[in-house]
Write a structure and sequence with these properties.
About 25% of the residues lie in helices and about 35% in strands. The protein is built from 16 helices and 27 strands. The longest helix has 15 residues, at about 255-270.
Length: about 575
């Protein structure tokens, strides 16, 4: 099977990425269309692949005579990637109508609630023409619905849905996206609360969430603000037992996000700020003010009743590296097109994209990018600390590592082994090591670690010969969620347990003093890992600071002696 696909806005932010996702497929002829022949031609020249899809530039103006333009281009499928769909004027569905008049299939990547939900008015016409018209083939609502479906596949009821998208601070966000966001800033957003219709304030309501695929490096705790997306209405239609639903966006850097929150709050108080008209200014600021990790992410959390009617809670987490994350909004449309080529055609009719693709459809596209995902089942507080933090990755730990961290509430355990210790020569480094109680330099010395857990906190007492020091470890909460926190007196270090082959890396992500977060540059640098080597637990801890150089390095092995 072969297809001719017209991508309106084909060299824009979303259309370009859709074309790039499909450029390898030889069964496709992609008409990369817009109002500039030069831009369309330059895009096709750059991204055409040998043995891949045929990329052809095309002129198309969705505000022009769409019927005549479609008659000239004769596509099998039209994908509208232009937007902003909130600003399509008095006749927003003119392209949909033109497509269905020809019996041509239609997709779009809209996330405007009124537009996406309004597609259903064409259901009868689409069925009569034997065509499909699917709106919202983007992250919202296609990916959120796919994740909810995967998380609750065997459940008897879904009561609570929460989700959020946090693009990388370096991601190219188009002006149309900012126009869409500012159009509802500070205005009522319809949603469900306690099983009743309610409203929230767009970009005013906020919550902090840590996006953390189990066993992978999480994002830093991210602020998400309520957004007006079709999911808020479309998902309860698929899961009618939903009582609460909330979706947010987490643009970064957080400073710019909080400024937008403040402006939205002023709008909610009745101050007529022309935020939509300021979208280009926001875009300029977003483009020039970039800092932080070049990583983005998404979470979907659900709560309800499992297959046996018991309360359950789970989350699906996604982290995308660098510039791979911005491909995700175009992946639902790509998945539908690839399914078409493989003979899996959507049923005729007009509807939202909620339920149009599965997480398995996404996975084959995720696999081509630096995108990791994972499911976290809520862990009871009585579970071992590292089991709480690592969730579903706990069982992937090598046996010797898991055995050393398998300490339930009220449990005690001891381990013994051998250790090598090196100490830094800088006087300040020696002072820091002495204050904490790190051992003196030694080779092949005896080491014993006693573990004691009470109230969810593990106390680790390390004894090197006649020297010892103690720390406390517990599962992080709040901004330290998904981190294992190790505390030395008032100072705490939140570490992310990351599986790396047969090693468990412990990567510092948050430092606190008396529970207050502080800049990481104030604190030591730590390289720490654990491994299972020949059935023994091996450890390596290297602590240094830019001002002092090495502070202490200790490495060796342990065997559990009693529990």
């Amino acid at each position: 099977m072969s297809l001719t696909v017209l991508i309106v806005g084909g060299y824009g932010v979303f259309g370009a990425r859709l074309a790039r996702l499909l450029a390898h497929e030889p069964r496709l002829r992609l008409l990369v269309a817009g109002r500039s022949a030069d831009k369309a031609g330059a895009f096709c020249a750059r991204w055409t692949q040998a043995g891949g899809a045929i990329l052809e530039p095309a002129l198309f103006d969705r505000n022009g005579d769409t019927v005549q333009q479609l008659a000239t281009l004769t596509p099998d499928l039209v994908v509208d990637c232009s937007g902003p769909f909130q600003a399509y004027g008095e006749t927003p569905f003119r392209l949909v109508e033109a497509c269905l008049a020809r019996g041509c299939d239609y997709l779009d990547v809209a996330d405007a609630s009124d537009f996406v939900l309004g597609i259903e008015r064409f259901d009868a016409l689409a069925k009569d023409k034997g065509a499909f018209a699917i709106s919202g083939a983007s992250t919202c609502p296609a990916l959120t619905a796919a994740a909810v479906g995967e998380l609750t596949d065997s459940w008897t009821a879904v009561h609570d849905i929460g989700a959020g998208i946090a693009p990388s601070p370096y991601a190219d966000v188009g002006v149309s996206v900012l126009q869409a966001i500012t159009s509802y800033a500070g205005k009522p957003v319809p949603l469900l609360r306690n099983a009743r219709p309610a409203t929230g304030l767009g970009l005013v309501e906020a919550r902090n969430v840590t996006v953390a695929p189990p066993g992978k490096l999480p994002l830093y705790s991210t602020r998400f603000s309520l957004v007006d997306v079709p999911d808020l209405t479309a998902l309860p239609k698929l899961w009618p037992d939903v009582r609460d639903i909330w979706l947010g966006a987490g643009p970064r850097p957080e400073l710019l996000h909080r400024m937008l929150n403040a402006l939205a709050r002023l709008v909610s108080l009745g101050i007529p700020l022309p935020l939509v008209k300021l979208s280009r200014l926001f875009h300029t600021a977003k483009t020039r003010l970039k800092w932080g990790e070049d990583r983005g992410g998404m979470f979907v959390r659900v709560a309800g009743l499992d297959g046996e009617g018991r309360p359950a809670a789970r989350s699906w987490n996604l982290v995308a590296e660098g510039d791979d994350g911005p491909f995700i909004p175009s992946m639902a449309a790509a998945a539908i097109i690839l399914n078409l080529l493989d003979g899996r055609r959507p049923r005729s009719g007009a509807r939202t994209a909620a339920g149009a693709v599965t997480l398995a459809d996404y996975q084959r596209l995720f696999a081509t990018k630096r995108i990791t995902t994972g499911i976290r089942d809520e862990q009871p507080s009585s579970a071992p600390v590292y089991q709480q933090v690592m969730a579903n990755a706990w069982t992937d730990l090598p046996p010797a590592i898991r055995a050393l961290h398998d300490l339930p509430e009220g449990g005690r355990m001891a381990a013994e082994g051998r250790v090598d210790v090196d100490r830094g020569a800088n006087p300040l480094a020696q002072l820091m090591a002495a204050v904490i109680g790190f051992p003196g330099a030694q080779k092949d010395g005896h080491v014993r670690v006693d573990f004691d857990r009470k109230g969810g906190v593990e106390t680790w007492t390390r004894t090197f010969g006649n020297q010892s020091f103690t720390s406390r470890q517990f599962a992080g909460r709040g901004r330290s969620t998904a981190l294992a926190v190790e505390a030395f007196g008032p100072m705490g270090c939140g570490m992310a347990p990351v599986l790396d082959g047969d090693r468990l890396l412990l990567i510092p992500r948050r430092w606190t003093v008396f529970g207050v977060g502080l800049p990481s540059w104030l604190f030591p640098r730590i390289e720490a890992w654990e491994a299972d080597e020949d059935g023994r637990f091996r450890f390596h801890v290297d602590i240094s600071h830019p001002l002092t150089g090495p502070i202490v390095l200790y490495r060796g092995w342990l065997e559990v002696k009693g529990a």
